[in-house]
Write a structure and sequence with these properties.
The complex is a heterodimer.
Chain A lengths: L6 E4 L9 E7 L6 E2 L4 E6 L4 E5 L4 E6 L6 E3 L3 E5 L47 H10 L17 H9 L4 H4 L31 H16 L2 E9 L1 H18 L5 H15 L6 E3 L2 E3 L6 E3 L1 E2 L6 E2 L2 E2 L7 H16 L13 E4 L19 E16 L5 E16 L5 H16 L7
Parallel strand pairs in A: 12-16, 16-17
Antiparallel strand pairs in A: 1-8, 2-4, 2-7, 3-6, 4-5, 6-8, 9-18, 10-11, 12-15, 13-14, 17-18
Helix pairs in contact in A: 1-2, 6-7, 6-8
Chain B lengths: L1 E4 H15 L3 E5 L15 H5 L4 E3 L4 H13 L3 E5 L10 H15 L6 E6 L14 H5 L5 E3 L4 H13 L4 E6 L7 E4 L12 E4 L4 E5 L3 H11 L4 E5 L2 E3 L3 H11 L2 E8 L4 H12 L9 E5 L8 H7 L3 H13 L1
Parallel strand pairs in B: 2-3, 2-4, 4-5, 5-7, 6-7, 10-11, 10-13, 13-14
Antiparallel strand pairs in B: 1-8, 6-12, 9-11
Helix pairs in contact in B: 1-6, 3-4, 7-11, 8-9
Classes of the chains: A alpha+beta, B alpha/beta.
């Protein structure tokens, strides 16, 4: 006859996010004898199905939760030992009367069943020096690929991780404020094959990878392109350049012109400046204009935002772009600088490319791509209505949009209007 | 600058100090007529006469007692134990009197006690020990364990200059095996300063004496950049040099020829754990002789004294940790 206090068997915590579990099967009944660690029952949670071992040896004195019932983590399921005498015949436990039992010296929450504790092995141990370096750089060591014994993160691993550009991560999150909950890679990388070499992924690269994949999984990407005769802009810019540079110390780039024209055009196309939030379409009375900026040495991409771009004239736009680009390169951006964009411009034309299909910066609805301005033979209609071939500065623009919100015709009209603004740019338009 | 053996370097250092300072004299068993069991003082009696190179009776107690008394009277005795093992006979004078006199009465006790120590040539349990940790534990005594000819000369000079009792552990296995450039002029190697034997970035070996060379051989085998610190003196020992290196490499092996338990490596390991905990990327590892007397059998002695292979194994464990 068991004596002394009973030991509670509780619904185990099977994972941080698991709050309840269902009893699927009792392997022992009231009155049965059980050894410690012998399976007492089976449970099912939304993460795993598993067996629960008995925390103690003794007689099952009470079963409080029946098969098929779902209860919260920590709920007492059964008791081992204690005063079973009276309980034995009255098999049906008296309803649910969770006696307080003040003297209970509850044993530690239960030896967790050795259920899938996700490949933690050596990786969970953090040596003192790794812990210190991680805290100095605000790095989560579990995100660092480990090469030590059992996958432990060594000092060299974390230093390589930092050297690969990770320290920028906390100050300037990659593309958007996506908290990059990097899923553990589906399959481990294993060992490099002949001719291959491995390098750790920086936090920024990981963030970009996650964000790009997520964006493609979220939006229905469609790209439309349009050719724009930039001759007027080229001419006006040539005129303004000297003045802007001497008077304001800023270069009126083509990008500034395009940004200015884009902001004006977006006023007429709120969906292009909008987003889908859950089941609502969100439109905005402001334009927070993001610019994709490549960091030095291909270390990654960041999208700082010029806020309230609708309030800026050409000079303000040129200054705004110059400022964020400089701060991006100098790693001076704050988290606020890279969040809250409503529309993005990316400029992959710097190397002469004339077309591309950029990925939308979530949760925005569209991204404008600007490409190289090239002189091309162009058919124009002269004042007499006669066609002629002229040499013109032509640039392609692409709009990649989320077809869930923006239809092709709308995108087409947007591009048409944007082209019109650029082709008919008047000196007083800035 | 000339190439000299470790033994020659000690001999030169002694001779130089004896020529320089009339107070310096040598006493020990067979140090005079015979020139010392290892011939460190060969020719000394001819040069300095029988009163400065004293052949003593077979009594370490008498040698140590005589040296202590002479030092208190203003002399600078250099006493030799024929083998370091026999210093146990001199324990009372050394530990009770010489070590404490400075604190007790303020009297300087400038003794150098030369202790041929270490194994590796089947000397058996009475002629192979490395008893430095026993004396490092005694406040008032300094313990010096040079590994190179240059340090041997510089440290014997420093030991003679020092106003305290200094135990000079000279490793017998290095006597004629190790040669190196030794400056001709007089110089002093400071007591308490370590020497970086080889620089490295991946892990640190802290050692002294003959083990410096064992570590050096092992470091050549492993695929890692190993920093070898030759402590040179273990009391006082160069904590800063060790901590600086540990902060750089974050992995450390403490290696010594003395037995493990209570060996000086324990003190070093504990200090690293205390002072550089947040710089460690692996547990501090110790490699030392097992806790038993030094075996006579060559096979067993090899198994007993840490060999290159043993160090390689320990280094590999640290590398892969």
């Amino acid at each position: 006859m068991a004596t002394g206090t009973a030991v509670d068997v509780v619904m185990p915590q099977m994972g941080v996010s698991v709050s309840e579990g269902t009893v699927t099967k009792w392997n022992k009944q009231v009155g049965d004898t059980i050894e410690a660690d012998e399976t007492l029952l089976e449970i099912s949670t939304d993460k795993v199905d598993t067996e629960v071992p008995s925390p103690a040896s003794g007689v099952v004195s009470e079963i409080l939760v029946q098969e098929g019932e779902t209860v919260n983590v920590g709920t007492v399921l059964a008791r081992i030992g204690g005063e079973t005498g009276a309980a034995a015949p009255a098999a049906e436990p008296p309803a649910a009367e969770p006696e307080p039992e003040p003297t209970h010296e509850a044993p530690e929450p239960l030896a967790q069943p050795a259920a899938p504790v996700a490949q933690e092995n050596g990786k969970s141990f953090v040596s003192p020096v790794v812990a210190r370096i991680a805290s100095e750089h605000g790095i989560d060591p579990s995100q660092v690929p480990g090469t030590g014994s059992g996958g432990r993160v060594t000092k060299k691993d974390i230093q390589a991780f930092i050297d690969s550009g990770a320290p920028a991560a906390p100050a300037a999150p990659a593309p958007a404020a996506a908290p990059a909950q990097a899923q553990p890679a589906q399959t481990p990388a294993g060992e490099p094959q002949l001719g291959e070499s491995f390098e750790p992924m920086s936090a920024m690269r990981r963030g970009i990878a996650d964000h790009m994949r997520k964006s493609l999984d979220t939006s229905a990407h469609v790209t439309s392109a349009i050719e724009v005769d930039m001759s007027r802009v080229v001419a006006i810019r040539a005129k303004l350049k000297k003045e802007y540079e001497s008077a304001y110390g800023v270069n009126p780039t083509y990008l500034a012109f395009i940004a200015r024209a884009t902001v004006e055009t977006l006023r007429d196309y709120p969906y292009v400046n909008g987003e889908i939030r859950s089941d609502k379409i969100v439109t905005k009375s402001f334009v927070n204009l993001g610019f994709a900026v490549e960091l030095a040495d291909g270390k990654g991409l960041i999208v700082p935002v010029v806020r309230n771009a609708e309030t800026l004239n050409l000079l303000g736009m040129a200054k705004g772009i110059a400022d964020i680009a400089k701060r991006a390169r100098d790693k001076q951006l704050t988290p606020d600088d890279v969040s809250g964009g409503s529309f993005t411009i990316t400029n992959p034309g710097g190397y002469g490319t004339f077309h591309g299909t950029p990925v939308i910066s979530q949760p925005q609805a569209a991204i404008l791509g600007t490409y190289a301005i090239v002189k091309r033979p162009w058919v124009i209609t002269d004042d007499n209505g006669a066609d002629a071939i002229a040499i013109r500065s032509i640039m392609n623009l692409t709009l990649t949009y989320d077809h869930r919100l923006v239809d092709g015709a709308l995108a087409g009209r947007f591009l048409r209007d944007l082209r019109e603004r650029l082709q008919t740019w008047g000196e007083s338009d800035y | 600058m000339a190439e000299k053996t470790y033994l020659q370097a000690i001999s030169d250092g002694l001779r130089e100090e004896m020529r320089r300072d009339q107070r310096v004299f040598i006493l020990g068993e067979d140090v005079g007529v015979y020139g010392g069991a290892f011939k460190v003082t060969l020719g000394f009696q001819e040069e300095f006469g029988p009163w400065r190179v004293l052949d003593m009776p077979l009594s370490e107690t008498a040698i140590m007692g005589g040296a202590t008394g002479a030092a208190m009277m203003g002399m600078r005795p250099v006493a030799e134990m024929q083998f370091a093992d026999f210093v146990s006979c001199a324990w009372d004078h050394l530990v009770t009197i010489a070590a404490k006199q400075r604190w007790r009465a303020g009297t300087p006790v400038p003794i150098v006690l030369r202790l041929p120590s270490g194994g590796g040539f089947s000397g058996g349990p009475f002629h192979s020990q490395n008893p430095e940790s026993s004396f490092a534990h005694i406040p008032g005594l300094k313990c010096v364990c040079p590994a190179t000819p240059e340090d041997a000369k510089g440290l014997i000079t420093a030991a003679i200059e020092d106003p305290n009792p200094v135990l000079f552990f000279e490793h017998k296995h290095l006597y004629r095996r190790i040669k190196g450039e030794v400056p001709d002029e007089r110089y002093v190697t400071p007591i308490g300063k370590a020497r970086i034997h080889t620089e490295g970035d991946d892990l640190t070996v802290v050692t002294w004496g003959a083990m410096v060379y064992t570590a050096e051989e092992a470091a050549k085998v492993v695929d890692a950049s190993v920093e070898i610190i030759d402590l040179r003196t273990i009391m006082p020992w160069d904590t800063q040099a060790v901590l600086d290196s540990v902060r750089k490499t974050s992995k450390v092996l403490v290696l010594h020829e003395d037995t493990r338990t209570g060996g000086f490596g324990g003190e070093i390991a504990a200090t690293i754990a205390e002072e550089a905990f947040e710089d460690l990327d692996a547990p501090v590892k110790r490699l030392a002789a097992p806790d038993c007397p030094v075996p006579f059998s060559p096979v067993l002695e090899k198994a007993y004294i840490p060999q290159v292979d043993d160090v390689v194994r320990a280094l590999k464990e640290l590398i892969s940790y």
